[in-house]
Design a protein that fits this description.
The chain is an alpha/beta fold. Helix content is 29%, strand content 26%. It contains six helices and twelve strands. Strands 3-2-1-4 form a four-stranded mixed β-sheet, with no helix packed on it. A three-stranded parallel β-sheet has the order 5-6-7. Helix 2 packs across helix 3, helix 4 packs parallel to helix 5 and helix 5 packs across helix 6. The protein is elongated.
């Protein structure tokens, strides 16, 4: 029983509707829909009901809402936590998202060493509750990931989260690695440095991903890389 039912496709909100669910799928909706005998009734007569939402930009293994005040994501989550705890955080966040009404999320990187793949697989196996997860694996970008100016003595610590790829061939290989390790979409960071990706670089990623049936998202902050990404056939742009 839905006190108010929102239909985004029609742009309407109707009162006192019955939603009949059979074998996990909606069979009928309407004010006059008959309720079969001896079936459980979820009474939301005083509530608003709407289709499950989709969040197309999440980092469920990195962010734990709310982030503690003053805490550095890089130092806390990227440098000092295991992939196991990152996976556990992702499963907890997936449960929180599901109960908040999100039935699907696209997780766009910062998942450690493919902790996002582990979260998706655990949900798909039915071991844990959660929304449908489309995961990007490791973010692909020019050397350095999304970090800046660290001393050489620190080593390439970002490679636990990123694939360094500086030529079209390296980008294609990084896409293939992501697919091999379970990514179901691809994420680029084109302009986090002065040596941002060119249109040819982006085209290499898009071509390789599209041949495997995957879409590509790109993180962009300035005009020239955005133009190159659009001309390169990118599927979605994040500013």
């Amino acid at each position: 029983r839905a006190g108010h039912l929102i239909d985004p496709a029609a742009g309407t909100a109707t009162a006192n509707q019955i939603i009949l669910i059979e074998n996990g799928k909606i069979k009928a909706i309407g004010a006059g829909t008959a309720i079969p005998a001896n079936v459980p009734v979820i009474d939301l007569s005083n509530e608003w009901v709407l289709p499950g939402m989709v969040d197309a930009h999440t980092h469920i293994t990195m962010n734990l809402p709310p982030n503690p005040p003053g805490e550095s994501l890089w130092e806390k989550y990227l440098l000092s936590e295991s992939d196991g705890i990152r996976t556990a955080r992702g499963l907890r966040n997936a449960d929180l998202l599901l109960h908040a009404g999100f039935l699907a999320v696209r997780d766009v990187g910062n998942g450690g060493n493919f902790a996002d793949t582990a979260v998706r697989q655990a949900i798909e196996k039915g071991w844990f509750p959660g929304p449908t997860v489309v995961n990007c694996g490791k973010i692909i970008g020019p050397f350095g990931g999304q970090s800046h100016g660290y001393a050489p003595e620190q080593g390439p610590f970002w490679q636990g989260e990123y694939f360094d790829a500086d030529t079209p061939d390296e980008i294609r290989k990084a896409v293939r690695k992501n697919i091999y390790y379970g990514a179901t979409c691809i994420k680029l960071v084109s302009d986090n440095s002065a040596y941002h990706y060119s249109e040819a670089d982006v085209r290499a990623a898009v071509d390789e991903a599209h041949r495997a049936g995957l879409t590509v998202a790109d993180h962009l902050r300035s005009d020239a890389p955005t133009r190159d990404a659009v001309n390169g056939g990118i599927d979605s742009v994040e500013h």
